[in-house]
Amino acid sequence: MKHSLLSFVLAFAITAVALASCSEVTPPEPYGPVPTARQLAWHETEYYAFVHFTTTTFRDVEWGYGDADPDEFQPAKYNPAQWVEVMKAAGMKGVILTAKHHDGFCLWPSKLTDYSVAHSSWKDGKGDVVGDLAKEAQRVGLKFGVYLSPWDRHDLRYGTPDYIDYYRGQLRELLTQYGPIFEVWEDGANGGDGYYGGLCEKRQIQPGYYDWGNTSALIRELQPDCIIWGNGPDARWCGNESGWMKEPNWAVADVEGEAMWHPAEVDVSIRPGWFYHASEDDKVKSLDHLMKIYYESVGRGANLILNIPPNKEGLIHPVDSARLVEFGQALEREFSQPLSKSGVKKFEASNERGGSRKFGARRVMDGDKATYWATDDSIQQASMTMILKKPERLYAMRLREPIQLGQRIESFSVEALNGSDEWQTVAEGTTIGPQHLMRLPDMEASALRVTVQSSKACPLLSEVQLFLPPKE
Ligand code: FUL
Fold it and tell me: Domain 341-467 has what CATH class?
């Protein structure tokens, strides 16, 4: 009798467990605006190069007035293959070129103006920097994008409706002749004065002049996957040009009164200027500075576009290229020792959605960004703990939210257990979004706990990656 009762109880328990794990625990609903597919792909691009190059380079100024003779563009050792090799070595995933800067000179043979490489004695008017770089980028697997300055200090049409047609015509050329374009950079500068065929006058434009809505529609039509940066709906400026994203960093921002997924991009130059100046050869940013920029941009959930200007010869200067190679190696080294899942004895959480393994804490280390640890909907504060197999020396950590479901977490802390029973706070932060990177104090830990202190909706984490110190 005793025996049969036991088997009955056991059978019941097994059925109950089986039922519980079979019953569908519904995933959380998205919270607020979520990224589009093109924005999700853009977040993956993370870190890429900016190339400022035009006649301005040869005049040693920052903002060309628009009066340079096309023949002044003479990069004697021009070699975009060298540029992309450097970018690859630096760990970059793409490149954006100033197809036209404020001086109005076009680096491709535009049919819509005579102010371009086609009218320069360089390469007998057969040059095409946009085409060459697009090809080279594709060869080495970098995404390619274009900067097309709305402010034009050369073209006589600037300030009239004809100029808007001209600008859109140029976009049409760029977006139909050079393969996939991952981002169009619509710069915001409008300084006023310019050459304008010798008139040398100030041209002020009225708000609404550029009619960005219709330009965005054209870009969508020609390249549906392209990110429209700046005046467009897809990504925004971080607010400074010194290489850092302010915190908290919310990807959701107000665009013309509507809350939208509109993430930030941090633009900064490896030198003080955007264009090459020999006088700045000794002012190339140090390795430490570049690493700080990386942590404060990519590490704060923004994208980083790092400018590397070719010199008058048409090459990336040796000081810059050496620094970039060094930086690429430093980045690899920085994240070279991730703790593998097998280094974790146990994952625990204060709450796991519906008690389901599908949303369990161990999801943060399964190497799949699509899966995540989630809590029940009623929860806005929660913690998850990783008990390590053996004490490990801390170095750095990366957290990610599954942003396909929106951005939620407002503040968090990371604590470590080292020997005693006392948890010690090793990091604190506000937003996470696509990622949050942080260095941790040099100490040993036998367990780590991530606590979400406040969240706009039930918190989700798709990755908690611990990095051990790089090997010497
Ligand atoms: C600014 C421009 O005025 C600079 O010359 C540079 O192109 C920078 C990236 O954007 O608005």
Answer: mainly beta
